[in-house]
Amino acid sequence: MSIIFNEKESLFSLYTRNSLYQMKADNYGVLLHTYYGKKTEHMDYSYLLCEREHSFAGSPYEAGNERWYSLETLPQEYPSYGAGDFRRSALQICRANGASALELRFAGYEIKEGKYNIPGLPAVYAEEGNQADTLIVTLKDTASDLYVHLYYGVLEDLDVITRAVRVENRSGEEIYLERVMSTCLDFMYGAYDLVTFYGRHEMERLFSRTAVHHGVQSVGSTRGASSHHYNPFVILAEQGAGEKSGECYGISFLYSGDFLAEADHDQVKQTRLVMGIHPDNFHYLLKPGEEFWSPEAAMVYSSQGFEEMTHAYHKAVRNNICRGKFKNARRPVLLNNWEGTYFTFTGEKLLQMASEAADMGVELFVLDDGWFGKRDDDCSGLGDWYVNEKKLGCTLGELSEKINGMGLKFGLWFEPECISEDSDLYKEHPDWAFQVPGKSPMRGRYQLVLDFSREEVRNYIYDQMCKVLDSAHIEYLKWDFNRSICDVYSASLPAARQGEVLHRYVLGLYDILERLNQRYPDMLIEGCSGGGGRFDAGMLYYTPQIWCSDDTDAIERLKIQYGTSFCYPVSTMGAHVSACPNHQTGRITPIGTRATVAMSGTFGYELDPAKISQEEKEEIRGQIENFKKYYELIQHGDYYRLTSPFDNSCYHAWESAATDGSEALVSVVANHTYPNMAQETIKLRGLTPEAYYEMNGKSYLGAALMYAGFPMPKPTVEYESFQFHFVKR
Ligand code: DGJ
Questions:
Q1: pTM of the full structure
Q2: Gap from CA of 702 to ligand 1 centroid (Å)
Q3: Domain range for residue 7?
Q4: Is 7 a catalytic residue?
């Protein structure tokens, strides 16, 4: 059992392979957070708590004259608003009388074998062979029958601890939830950096590292989706921590809507990190007898830098978050027509593209936007999910049959959450789109957003999608979402419940995705939101891969995929080779480099084969063979960031090493070339030090490659890339 409760000390100790997480219900029933860090033998870490008297601090009534005892400075497991702790809280409510002070006290616990689930929300699950246990600690408000159940999933061998919260209103009064964070970590000492991943459309998940300073630092989204702008994954890292050393704590939030991560560094140099649903526009009514589940946060502690943390996340995301037939299966190499044709295509053109794709060894042809309703640009048609047979010149069934006949699978694009005003659906149901009565709606890419908090809206879209999906042999679906949500107002909810709409929307999104997964278990679903605008662990529970970015420029992708790799494995990152000059940046890169970069993703193409030369077609054939050859190693090996694309180095390199050290593939892109370039060497990782490795007929000692490094070749053309395959003798 990975969870131990020491009754005498009222101490909960949660053990994973490398970490220990500890909390203690003290004499007043306050649940204190005593430790999260390197795994040790049993120890009650509350010895670290010292008596400190602080002016202007509030002390709980039960503490009498013990002035030193204040929640203002004690590390807490789940701090509530209004109880003498003036840092950012985890839970804030408003009672029927308007009061918000909430004092939570320990009221019991339960330890169960296995990992808990959350109804309607994604959650890490235990696979056969995983050691997983659940701890539920119950807290109760001193003034009402509001219960807060803290859920901990301890996945020992995965080195992951998950947290979620269930708030239960057993009182007779209506209570509003104003803020429900999924996790809170208090650190009494230490100097930390906050690592976050920021960006924008076509430039997502850029690495950012800033020192935690006095005050509150935060990232989040209020766009209705997790967003391109900040990712719901953050790291609190000991200052000086790097890839291979130093302590760090990752928090991945399994949620695809508004989120907030806050680091609060207080007046006595303590640091608190909270993460959960963004409280802006969150106002959730809990009637007597009702309960609310927060989404889940998955935490990983590493005492050996980012690399160890990344490996734990990659394993957990791949095996314990992604689900279904494709979670471990090789995804077909695809060709998507988007950058090849945009909206301008005919059935004949698609068949010609597919035929050339098949000839090059592509396995799946994806028909992107523009095949339905009246949709020849992005101004109309969304919501009308019926096939434009006039444009295709045939039915979808006929088209897919012809494509299948070429030996290709067939896939299709949808944007189910959106609606164009110029559509039949909008004419019939204008109130199905988010709109505030009396106000003109905000448009985004000319479109509005359907109210997925409403069941009838979801049912309609789901039925329309099923009709299309059943009309042809469709083995892949791309689920896109191309705007931020504004005008949050649901015509189906009363005023008192409008603050629930965005969360209900995300639940609705998950509901329809779950239904699709159940009904089409053999269909691969790729998530997308204008590229990587909803690239989060919540979506990965429903879609095992997500289009990483609308920026397909290989050099820009180095930064995007680097940032993405901190939490998310290669198997989740949609990456394609596209045409040159690149459509987003105008940059010209060798087709080999484009493939090297895309191969560290799900791998595919996004171009018109008619516009490339015979030599390039030949090269593509070779690339696909190469990808298949290295697939196991790339997708299931351990991923190492050997350099950072933000460094001054002329090369950016990464590596996939077999978990048993038997082989490694090092990919390098010369992203800056200069005359008289200095010699650079790159140190490999994950090899067996005492073993010898062969590469291109030469033999190298593993220790030499790891500790002295491997010299980088001089590039002969701009942005040249190299792949080095080392095999243990
Ligand atoms: C945004 C996606 O990221 C693109 O790949 C493409 O599917 C377009 N939408 C289509 O409108």
A1: 0.98
A2: 44
A3: 3-320
A4: no
